[in-house]
Design a protein that fits this description.
CATH topology of the largest domain: Elongation Factor Tu (Ef-tu), domain 3
Distance between the termini: 29 Å
Order of helices and strands: EEEEEHEHHEEHEEEHEHH
Number of helices: 7
Shape: globular
Largest sheet: 6 strands, antiparallel, barrel
CATH architecture of the largest domain: Beta Barrel
Amino acid sequence: MFTGIVEETGFIKSFDGKRLVIECKNVLDGTKIGDSIAIDGCCQTVTAMSSNTFSADVSSETLRITKGFKTGECVNLERALLPQGLIENASAAGKEGCMRSTRSTRMGGHIVQGHVDGTAKYLGDMTFEVSKDLDKYIVYKGSITVNGVSLTVSKNQNNTFAVAIISHTLENTNLKYLKTGDLVNIETDILGRYVEKFLSRQNNNITEDFLKENGFM
């Protein structure tokens, strides 16, 4: 699990279609082989490390669902999160290895799985175009992850959405490099998908009264 708060940007040193090598610094601190790191919002497992790189083996499904990886490209990086309570328990039990493998932080973003739902096309001015399948999970003032960055939807209509972004976030992520027509990885809010499934199983004829009775309005 992640928060969508990018820790640093790194660069793709090489990618041969299967093995991805990322050059970076901060996210290597405390990381070991087998840990998870989100690369542009896509959760990947560390399979090898050096003093300034880590490697990950990319599946065909990952390549199918994401925008892909290009050598030299700047990518957003975030290590997996470990809740504070688990760290304290691990420390009490003398399991320092658990403490080294992940990190604990405030949930400054939102719940991010690192499971990319698909891609969106950048239209300029922090506005993106998505498919109808993804658009149904995007709501005004809701949370969304763009290239691994937790953002708030400021507008949503006609299969497009815009996000509110502060200068600090823009300057410290690869979103500052976006050009019109570029693809980005999108992960919609997991809560919306759970709500949809619950409603579809409860009642196929959703009404305003039904939503009020079940606490959705």
